[in-house]
Amino acid sequence: MTTIFDQALTGYRFVDTQYGDTLQKIAYRELGDASQWPLLIAYNQLVYPFITDDPEQSTDGVILTGTQILVPAPVPVIAAQTNPAQVFEIDVALDRNGDLQADSSGDFSVVSGNANLVQALNGRIVTDSGELLWHADYGNQVRQLLGTINGPNAALLAGQYVTSAVSVDPRVSSVDSSLVTIAGDGIQVAVQVTPIIGRAVALSAVL
User: Which pLDDT tens digits describe the chain residue by residue (207 residues)?
Assistant: First the structure.
């Protein structure tokens, strides 16, 4: 009998774990379904207790929180010759204020390929967590740092918020760098990501 533990590894991505995480929490956060936690065991070849906050309990089969874990991605691994316009799909084009744009014929302007990927990822950066009622996990918490003590810890935390928000997109292979500068009531974000196909792309936003 074939079980989920016998399934071949196809599409996947790495995500950061957090202190206090369980496999059920990770499955809910990353896959949208806590009942999918056995998949994480299969993908990472884990053994009980699977994940721990205690460095002394961490072994080859037990992940220490704060490190990365392999999770299924909703798309398969993409071949290098695949057309980026097809991989990164097509969407309506938005201006810097998030408003729709019109093309020369008066129809909605669209964006595709790498440009659509950049637009989509910038959308994750500039959206506050909880701002979209039907997508509670979308966005990040960077703006919550405004008014707090500015320093290295705040910058590192802000960078982690942005990295987590961007890395959940299945078209992102890795987040290479994430720099957040908080000055007064303004936030500047600069991120470089490597997509699942093609060269790295740069993202920037002012919040």
Answer: 445 445 554 567 888 888 999 999 999 888 888 888 999 999 899 999 999 999 999 988 999 998 888 888 765 444 444 555 566 677 888 777 777 878 788 888 888 888 888 888 888 888 888 888 787 778 888 888 777 666 667 778 888 888 888 888 888 888 888 888 877 677 788 889 988 877 788 888 887
Please tell us whether the domain made up of 84-206 is placed in CATH 3.40.50.300: no
> Residue holding tokens 């942005």?
162
> What secondary structure letter does DSSP report for 109?
P
Q: Distances from the Cα of 119 to the Cαs of 27, 53, 85, 138, in angstroms? A: 27, 36, 14, 15
Helix (H, G, I), strand (E, B) or coil at 145: helix
CB 65 within 8 A of CB 21: yes
Asked whether the beta carbons of 203 and 192 are under 8 A apart, the reply is yes
Collapsing DSSP to helix, strand or coil, 131 comes out as: coil
| Domain range summary for the chain, segments of one domain joined by + | 4-72, 84-206
DSSP states of 160-188: HHHHHHHHTSTTEEEEEEEEEEEETTEEE
63 beta partners: 51
Which of 195, 194, 196, 192 is closest to 204 using CA atoms?
192
Strand pairing report for 63-64 and 51-52: parallel
Compute the distance between CA of residue 114 and CA of residue 171 in angstroms, rounded to an integer.
Answer: 10
